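We emphasize that the prediction below concerns an isolated chain of 107 residues; any contacts that depend on oligomerization or on bound cofactors are therefore not represented. The input was used exactly as deposited, without trimming of termini.
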Amino acid sequence: MLASCVQREAGVAIGASDDGKTFQVSVGSLVRLSLAANVTWTLESTDTQQLQLVETSVLTLGGEQTRIWNFKLTKAGTVTLRAVPACAPVTSGCPDHALRFVFDVRQ
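Result of the prediction step, given as a token string:
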């Protein structure tokens, strides 16, 4: 009989409601950012080597489209991710400021 191992990587799922929060994570953790797909987002990181983009996708959940970015944290330290909306605040679902997420990455 063969036994198989499935290795699950730790991670955190974040969205607009997590704006301004700091997350304690470990090197190798995954970050899944989910935001409204009806808004055009520009993502900015203080260290693109530490917070590496793995993939992006768009899903439809309950009739609403959601854009998802998956990142991997590759080294210890603090890194900040900003999501800047490119739309007028009067647009439905468009925040009136950039969203900010901080990751305190430990070994």
